[in-house]
Amino acid sequence: MPLSDYFAGPDWRSVWRMRSEQTRHDPTSAAWVTGVIWDEDQHLAVGRAGYHGPPDAEGMVEIGYAVDPAYRCRGYARAALESLLQRARNEPGVRTVRVTITPENTASYGLVAQYGFTAVGEQWDDEDGLEIIYEISADPARR
Known about the structure:
Blueprint: H1 10-25, E1 35-39, E2 44-51, E3 60-67, H2 76-90, E4 96-101, H3 106-113, E5 118-125, E6 129-137
Parallel strand pairs: 3-4
Antiparallel strand pairs: 1-2, 2-3, 4-6, 5-6
């Protein structure tokens, strides 16, 4: 699979390292964590998307996605988000889907807002700084 310099570069290296370590310690999380956003028509890796891990004790999963800047504004983030939401709806143990977004990432916020995510708090991330926490019910009937 061909990867762009950005895909394998320093901006995403910490994510790949973290998820690799996570799956080494908990092999069952491999089915949940970050994977490749693949454009089948172009035969090209354009981004990454997945969950931060399996559902927690309360049934919450946190999603994450990012698109290589060279391939942004082409619908890849939307397709990844829709796929992650669909899987969450189909998993019996998932009740809540969470995403965290830095305040300046207006594009990502604009996308998740279209799907009904609402702000429920904020947190400090050592790598990304201040993040707003957004959640949505995995059950469309509870929205």
